[in-house]
Write a structure and sequence with these properties.
43% helix, alpha/beta, homodimer, five-stranded parallel β-sheet, 14 helices
């Protein structure tokens, strides 16, 4: 692994090193995904079963996880169940604190603006398949949906080669109060939830990460007012670590490796003030790598990693703000002192004990986070993503008299005469009443 | 205007009456908008000037509103200026109250999750052109952007046939602290703000309503990670009025007319428990219509309006929740008592004095609202749309010992060994320290 020194690079080299890997061509993906969506809309459950044969290589008679199938959840070990329960309690605590209070503003007497929240009525949760059951993702979606009070919560996840759903997923779903689970994955699952089929209920908003197909399908169904909205665009996972000479090389190396093992497209960046630490980290990565089962994935991912030596922590934070990483790890002395300088990152881990992995699973902070620079404009998944605001406006005669004339004037400037009249008739009516 | 009685209709007729007007074909629009965006990216300011000739019929030497051009803002009458100042004070009060508090949760001792907010660094505000200056839209965008503390705030609005921007727009911009104004409209303005040109600075997120081109351009640039995000999808404006026998027919008629005068595609729906009131409202609309300058627009819009007699207010609210209107007007006795039953609407006006027009201009509630059923999943524009959340996670040794083992277990279930190791090495290090 090559270590670059930031202040010896040209501006062009700097920009290039902070570039993210190219994503799959949108146009090609878009056409294929649109076709899957059209098929699901036209042929419903039959199309879903056909795609499950094609992509998941299994023939399903029933897309639904039956109440009997849930029985295997009982096989999950006590240890595993306890770990899930701890995670759920933490996620509950963090998200419950995000519940918005009712706001009421009366800036002018008699002119009252109240803001309340309502749960989104029907939500669809997507948990990707893969080599292992992503129970953490399930909990990160299902717990806030439950706290928000969304009345209909539907879960889609692809079946394994035996046409089953992993017992851990079923156990986690039960612990999170989800009882509607369907064995479908990919763009077809998104299409089914956006439009509904005979088996799958239609939802208003779809949550959860996925591959490029799932993401593209979420974008497409969101453009159709008859479709469904979505949470946030998902891209390859990424971490940026800022480490000073006080950092533990082994801790940093494993934080970088944790990120790299997610996906060949995952991106890891290290910014350090110490060339020596940088070299130690490289050494530790190479030693650890030999022992890790996902070595092949990690090697591909590390091929586009970046190791940079910077002059000071302020420079490192400026680079991080520019990159806007999904995860930022601050392995520096007195990490809390730098919080105010950090502007753009999904989530930030402060200090040597705060392994990113703890945030993936058990701190309670949501691990569905903005990738690919999207942290410039958005935070991670939050309780409010499962809620909607509604504003109420009420007015007394006193209020109308105070602000009505300004509304008449503004309507006049905008050339909207019915607008003006709607206020004028009310003001006149009040005058009449006074006589 | 035809009055239907809800409970005499078949389910199919009911569904059909609540259907929104069809939108322009997406595919055609998409290709043309993509071409405009590509041209602006390739040829920058030159393309912007060419499109301004083509669409706004004016040749501009400079796209920027010069400091000297701002002088005409002084010509705005004292009345107009006072009305704007009142509106701005109200918008400030309502949006300032939306400033999120810092959250700090420590559900397990030593495991701390803190949520802070940051302003989005660069925001682009779009104010559409048209027959009159939309100063209210400008204030609804610029005031929250200022309160949020967004450091760069750029405004684009199309020039009039003399290549100028209306003095009221310039005055409103000054009052809202906007000094970067560019004379461009349409999809080309969106493209310019998303990617930047020699003259127009690149922004991170674009706000403001617009026609189908503007909306399509916002959707397209948001799909490109190099582009910019946007606020919420804009469709034709719409109002649903629920009125009982206590309602004033003239007030309701003018509320419906106000909505209808926006746009030929605007949709107005009346649900009333009183056939007599419905007939009075029809009569008033016909009388008023003759006097209104925007009569032609209103007539086209009213052609797809709906007047329905319902059995009771509960039925009316159920219909409204199903339709999810942008604006809901409750012209009923004791309107406040129905708040809890109202689930899906952008904003709700309660009682006879609360003309929707007051919300358009001066209550302070934001008038950029979810249209076309989007109120099922989203509220109106809010201060948080100009902010982003960032979460900080910190951990003591005690915290790590309490939750670390659960993280190890969950990583094991998910088959992520580097994840497991990242926690294990820290736990081991703590044990070593204890000896």
């Amino acid at each position: 692994m090559k270590i670059h020194t930031w202040n010896t690079l040209t501006e062009q080299q700097q920009t290039q090193l902070l570039q993210r890997p190219e994503l799959q061509s949108q146009e090609d993906l878009r056409a294929k995904t649109a076709e899957i969506i059209a098929e699901v809309r036209a042929r419903g459950d039959t199309a879903l079963k056909d795609y499950t044969v094609q992509f998941d290589h299994v023939q399903l008679d029933d897309l639904t996880v039956s109440p009997q199938a849930f029985a295997v959840a009982d096989d999950v070990s006590e240890d595993a169940r306890a770990a899930m329960q701890l995670a759920i309690r933490q996620i509950e605590a963090v998200h419950q604190a995000q519940m918005p209070q009712e706001l009421s503003v009366e800036a002018t007497p008699g002119v009252k603006c109240v803001r309340q929240t309502r749960p989104i009525a029907r939500v669809g949760l997507y948990v990707p398949g893969g080599s292992a059951p992503l129970i953490s993702t399930l909990m990160m979606l299902a717990v806030p949906a439950k706290i928000a009070g969304c009345p209909l919560r539907v879960l889609c996840t692809p079946p394994n080669k035996d046409g089953q759903i992993d017992a851990h997923i079923l156990a986690a779903a039960q612990l999170c109060g989800i009882d509607k689970i369907f064995k479908i994955g990919g763009a077809q699952a998104v299409a089914a939830m956006a439009y509904g089929t005979a088996t799958i209920p239609k939802v208003d908003k779809i949550f959860g990460p996925g591959n490029a197909w799932v993401t593209q399908a979420k974008i497409l169904v969101a453009q159709d007012p008859q479709g469904a909205s979505y949470d946030l665009p998902a891209g390859p996972s990424e971490v940026l670590v800022i480490a000073d000479e006080t950092a533990n090389a082994e801790f940093v190396a494993l934080d970088l490796l944790s990120q790299a093992e997610h996906d060949v497209a995952a991106q890891v960046i290290l910014l350090t003030t110490s060339m020596l630490l940088g070299q130690q980290i490289c050494g530790t990565i190479e030693r650890q790598l030999a022992k890790l089962p996902r070595r092949k994935i990690i090697e591909q991912s590390l091929a586009h990693s970046r190791l940079l030596v910077v002059d000071d922590i302020a420079t490192a934070i400026a680079i991080s703000n520019r990159y806007a990483p999904e995860h930022l790890i601050m392995q520096v002395a007195e990490a809390e002192q730098h919080m105010a300088a950090i502007h753009y990152a999904g989530t930030v881990f402060l200090g040597s004990m705060a392994a990113e992995v703890l945030g993936d699973y058990v701190t309670g902070s949501n691990h569905v986070l903005p990738t690919y620079g999207f942290a410039r404009v958005s935070g991670g998944l939050a309780l409010t993503d499962f809620l909607k605001f509604i504003s109420f406006q009420s007015m007394t005669a006193e209020g109308l008299q105070a602000i009505g004339p300004a509304a008449e004037k503004l309507a006049e400037i905008e050339g909207l005469h019915a607008h003006q009249q709607a206020v004028s008739v009310r003001l006149k009516d009040l005058k009449k009443g006074e006589k």
